[in-house]
Amino acid sequence: MPEAQINRWTLRFKDKEFEKTFVREHVERDLPMCTIYIMLGIGAILTYGILDYLVLDSEEFWTLVNIRLWTCGILSFLVAACYLPNIDNKIQWVISASMLVSGAGIISMICVLDDPFSYIYYAGLILTIIYCSNFSLLQFSFGTAVSLILFGLYVYAAVVIN
To answer: What sign does the CA torsion over 138, 111, 46, 66 have?
Structure first.
């Protein structure tokens, strides 16, 4: 099938109409599961707050609670945005934003934590990138771009702020 040839750099179909049809059908089929995955991610973000409670002092704990609540609030808004009309044209931006918000939440936690915890929160960032890249409708080019942005933010946080 000549229309099924894939561009090796963008990992999209070369035929624009075939790509558009594929994306529309893919979004229709997988969007409900994608939103469930984002909601599970919200649950994970909140659940990891239990670890914060167990190991952090009161001031750091409440700062992280605030960051977690803001992150989950924005993610909840993005889940709702997934059900806007004609979302198949914008879904990559919505899912990219959810990955960016999740990662930025973790990076902001790294910025406010003292040693030794500021050194170990990077693991959450790795999990976020893997989770968002594998369990969502995120295309390779969008996932790569957001991963590079998060990497740059993490390096800045680790080198300059901490």
So the answer is: negative
Give the burial class of 78: count Cβ atoms within 10 A of its Cβ; 0-12 exposed, 13-18 middle, 19 or more buried.
buried
What gap in Å lies between CA 82 and CA 35, rounded to an integer? 7
The DSSP code for 114 is P
Q: Which of 5, 79, 85 is nearest to 37 (CA)?
A: 79
pLDDT in tens, 34-79: 889 889 989 999 998 898 898 888 888 999 999 999 999 999 999 9
Tokens representing 106 are 């973790």
Whole-number Å distance between alpha carbons of 34 and 134 = 10
pLDDT at 153 > cutoff 90: yes
Residue 81, both tokens: 């945005």
Which tokens hold the place of 97? Answer: 């934003």
The pair of three-digit structure tokens given for residue 120, joined into one six-digit string = 């170990």
Output DSSP code: residue 113. P
| Per-residue pLDDT tens digits for 67-125 | 999 999 999 999 999 888 888 778 889 989 999 999 999 999 989 888 777 777 778 88
